[in-house]
Amino acid sequence: MQQINQIADHLYLIQQGNNSYIHRQLGESDTVVIKSVFHAQLFMEDDSACHSVHQRECQDLQNEWKILSQLNHPNIIKTQQFIPNHQLDPAGGNLQCCSLFLENASCDLHTLCKSNETSFKIIIKYFTQISIAVEYLHSQYIAHNDIKLENMLVIDRNVIKLADFGFSYRPSYEDLLSKWLPRTLTSYSSPEIVNFRINVVDGEYDEFCLFASDVYALTTALFLAVFQLWMIQYYQLLINQPDLFWQLDFIQKVDSQLMREHTPKQLLENLKDLIEGGLADEYNRITIQEFVNHEFFKYAKQIEGEQI
């Protein structure tokens, strides 16, 4: 770990995973973001496990390159180059890695939300863009499969882009079981994914739609951006007793703050309806088209320019 940090000293570290790093590098003309997977021997003593992890993560990075190369949308991150085996800094060490070069971004939305430098108006603007990007992605019959605030990259105050397509999934070409077995559950994982992971151990599981799971994850991200608290521990209450759920203290606190900022009550009601629709069970959940065209975004656009 220390050796990697020494090699990458001249780069600005944006984000760090288990075996991957995302750096920003200032070039002579443009600033680029470099997403790299280092050889897992740095982190694991078992050579066979090491090779398996490294190979899978390199495959994810290559999958991201292939998918991004086929996409063209103003709110999906653009890729520049994929280098399968190289040294991040030829002048230092002998660490090999796979790297994907992407367009520059200032930070991810999770970091921005934690810094309290967002407003309700900005969140609406960003999720309008991200939802349209997901709609485009689904129109290409691709499920993102890893939507979360950390994978929404802020380019500037007016533009945000969806990133991290390593887990993206094309049902026509890939097997659901092989795609999800290596994955770990997160707070963005839909109930059907959770059930899949629980039941697959016994060899009995139900197929599920990752397009619907994308909508669940997108809605979870919106909820977290607005209310600054994870949905997962309150999910059953929302599903079974929504009227009681919306009376929870942390919800009321945010509502009161937004009302003091002259946010129209109708906009908040529309938001809650959108969240209920996006977090419903798989068969009653709204589609991405319904998400994009929901009254919440329509009403927000209608009152744009006013205080919200």
UniProtKB/TrEMBL annotation:
Gene3D superfamilies assigned to the protein according to its UniProt record, in alphabetical order: Phosphorylase Kinase, domain 1 (3.30.200.20), Transferase(Phosphotransferase) domain 1 (1.10.510.10)
Name of the protein this chain belongs to: Protein kinase domain-containing protein
Gene Ontology molecular function, alphabetical: ATP binding; protein serine/threonine kinase activity
SUPFAM superfamilies named among the record's database cross-references: Protein kinase-like (PK-like)
Single biological process term from Gene Ontology: regulation of autophagy
Keywords: ATP-binding, Kinase, Nucleotide-binding, Transferase
Highest taxon of source: Eukaryota
Keyword check for Nucleotide-binding: yes
Lineage, opening ranks: Eukaryota, Sar, Alveolata, Ciliophora, Intramacronucleata
